[in-house]
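For reproducibility, we list the full input for the protoporphyrin IX containing FE complex.
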Amino acid sequence: MIKAIILDIFSAGTDTTSTSLEWAITELLRNPRAMKKLQQEAREIGQGRSLIPENDLHKMPYLKAVIKESLRLHAPAPLLVPHQSTKDVKLLGYDIASGTQVMVNAWAIARDPSVWEEPEEFRPERFLNNTIDYKGLHFELIPFGAGRRGCPGISFATIINEFVLANLVYKFDFALWGEKALDMTESYGITVHRKFPVLVTTTPSEDDLDKMPYLKVVLKEALRLHIPAPRGKDVKLLRYDIASGTQVMVNTWAIARDPSIWDEPEEFRSERFLNNPYRLYRISF
Ligand code: HEM
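The corresponding predicted structure, in tokenized form, follows.
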């Protein structure tokens, strides 16, 4: 029994959660304005802390709207799971006999133009200032199903989705990588994935970089020892006028290893840049 429950949780809970996050990130990349708005919200709430804690997620209405909108367009289980009627019912004028297998097309409902304005557009704002939620009480949005056989993992999934997405956009800026990054083709299965994985590069947010002085000095030290080929330009340098067009070879390699300037110049020691005036390679000769 315990084995069966654990298997159930893994099979129903892992794939659905990861694919819903992947779709949410894809939509944010396709809609940079929404990404920016979400990052602003996350960075205001995060206030420089290392993580946005679970307790603060309720202060992030835009995050919740982004997740709802992404689940509306990309319900991980678009046909839910097959149901069977246990007795004869009459529904919207149809007679459904006991024992009929019923598939609910949650995907079509979530894109029905008689319910949603511009249903194909990713517009999280549609969920601000209204009460529509996916908990099974609003039948226009049922990515978790509804009623007694609705998803029992909904609360857990909501926290995971919100917590992971909030912290990803809080900590990182994203850029697309590769041609297929925004290809929206879906793969088929009980859960619907992206056919091509969304490939992105991430960089720490600028706020975080400011808090990483050691990273900066490692880069400076690496540049001191391994300077890329210098580019010439017209300059007045150390009282010399260098006319436009003069070919200038600057031996930055020799300067950066000059023992009259650097202690133990052949050693890689990032610490030499901590607390000293060589702040910018651009202006420190
Ligand atoms: C974004 C994440 C998730 C989505 C979109 C989702 C969606 C669904 C849907 C649509 C169903 C079928 C409901 C129906 O047919 O009415 C379902 C069932 C189920 N889900 Fe989830 N789910 C998610 C995450 C999870 C998690 C994290 C867990 C467990 C920790 C979980 C456990 C289950 C189980 C056990 C069932 C079967 C319930 C039954 O047979 O009565 N799900 N889920």
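Residues 279-284 have pLDDT under 50 and may be disordered. Residues 111 and 119 are 5 Å apart (CA to CA). Both points were considered when choosing residues for closer inspection.
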